[in-house]
Write a structure and sequence with these properties.
It comes from Pseudomonas frederiksbergensis. By secondary structure, the chain is mainly alpha-helical. The protein contains nine helices and two strands, in the order H-H-H-H-H-E-H-H-H-E-H. Strands 1-2 form a two-stranded parallel ribbon.
């Protein structure tokens, strides 16, 4: 790889990571949760969000994690018409077998790759199971304690 290609690759990684971190922030994640999801240091987190991370180098694992966050965001945008729903969904409690009352954000922030992957897989299936084009108010649709019993019910996703 030439130095120009390497610079372009680092630049693309920086742009992807910055978009990823902005999405995670909109999910109401803490900086610590964001760092665990993408497996970056708090120093890298601050540098990228301040716009000074052009030289950041991401390994393959980190690039896959960035990709999954971007794919989760795309799936949520395909599922919900309301931007507020897109951003709040990962922070809502969910009671299917996989989540066991936890939020998708909590699962992803465990930091292991399989938790992020399984959360991504389940969220990507939302438009496929007919949970598409719903223009709903999340606060009135879900119970007052921010719990989700649908759309992640076990009978839909097993």
């Amino acid at each position: 790889m030439t130095s120009t290609q390497a610079m372009l690759s680092r630049r693309k990684a920086f742009v992807g990571l910055k978009a990823c971190l902005h999405i995670i922030q909109k999910w109401r994640a803490t900086p610590s949760q964001a760092c665990r999801i993408v497996r970056i240091s708090s120093h890298t987190y601050r540098r990228v969000l301040s716009g000074n991370g052009d030289s950041v180098r991401l390994n393959v694992d980190q690039l896959y994690r960035v990709s999954m966050v971007l794919n989760i965001h795309a799936a949520l945008k395909m599922t919900f018409n309301n931007p507020l729903n897109v951003h709040q969904f990962p922070s809502l409690n969910n009671h299917n077998d996989f989540f066991n009352g936890r939020t998708p954000l909590e699962i992803m922030a465990q930091g292991d790759f399989i938790s992020l992957y399984e959360t991504c897989r389940r969220i990507q299936s939302l438009p496929l199971i007919g949970f598409r084009d719903l223009d709903i108010d999340m606060q009135s649709y879900f119970s007052t304690n921010d719990t989700v019993s649908e759309p992640f019910s076990a009978e839909h996703l097993t």
